[in-house]
Amino acid sequence: MTKLALLGALAATGLTAGIASASTLDDVKARGTLNCGVNSGLVGFATPDANGNWTGFDVAICKAVAAAVLGDASKVTYVPVSSQNRFTALSSGEIDLLSRNTTWTFSRDVDLKLDFAGVNYYDGQGFMVRKDLGVTSAKELDGATVCIQTGTTTELNLADYFKANGMSYNPVSVDTNSEGEQQFLAGACDAYTTDASGLAATRAAFANPGDYIILPEIISKEPLGPSVRHGDNQWGDIVRWTLNALIAAEEYGITSTNADELASSSENPEIRRILGTEGDLGKMFGLDAEWAKRAIKAGGNYGEIFAATIGESTPIGLARGLNAQWTQGGLLYAPPFR
Prior knowledge:
Elements lengths: L2 H18 L3 H8 L2 E6 L7 E2 L5 E2 L1 H14 L5 E6 L4 H6 L5 E2 L7 H5 L3 E3 L4 E3 L1 E6 L13 E6 L3 H12 L4 E6 L2 H9 L5 E5 H9 L7 E3 L7 E3 L2 E3 L3 H20 L6 H7 L3 H7 L5 H4 L6 H9 L2 H8 L29
Parallel strand pairs: 1-4, 1-5, 9-10, 9-11
Antiparallel strand pairs: 2-3, 6-14, 7-13, 8-11, 8-12
């Protein structure tokens, strides 16, 4: 099936699913669990431990939404999805929410009929090579073999970048990050390319991460964020404002440990509206007053989640950079809660 035909088929599936499932909120409440699509395994973003407990930056979104909607962050059924089947899983109703390193693009928004709830990580595509290869710039990769996940924006960016720079390459297609990691370590490709955050997470899991370098070039914009199906604005609003609540909580100093105290003691009207002690924002989309407070307590505000999963003190070691609050020179900015 051609890419255009595939997009059309998925769009039709998405439209049908949107009609068949009028209220995702009602479905989730009736089921008693949130079906959340996550990466099949990417350290720091979504990985299960030996007991099957999922943790990570993207997993935190699943837990926050479950806490907001169901009152319990543990009420999540994690559905590992690949770069190829993630959109079909969402459009068909297999999952209620996709929280898996997914770039917000025009065609995914408009043609695949997804609604992106916002950006939870501002990323860009990079390259990783073995240090002993002696390469220090992506401009030196002419003629290289490059491992690339199919069905991703990075696959398209790769072609654009080499064409624009008059270079050739031999793609080695992989279905998952795990397969890409294996192929790269086995020497099947000179370079592995994906989102820079994904490269850092992948390298952190290597036995000898110091043997590999991430080249300095960032060749694309990759605004990553959770998404839902078109056609259910109430559910889209819930996911969007749950993410906004985590971002705003960091800005206003609301944490997983002081949320209860601030709910009763703060005189800041914005904090009181977020925490449900003033106004009736939750009622406007079918939840109670404390939905955001529960979401924040589930895993912390945005900054707490970032620090605990992918931040500089973790093996992945990502700096906040563009993902700092707007008050700190970054791009994170939650609309007002009023």
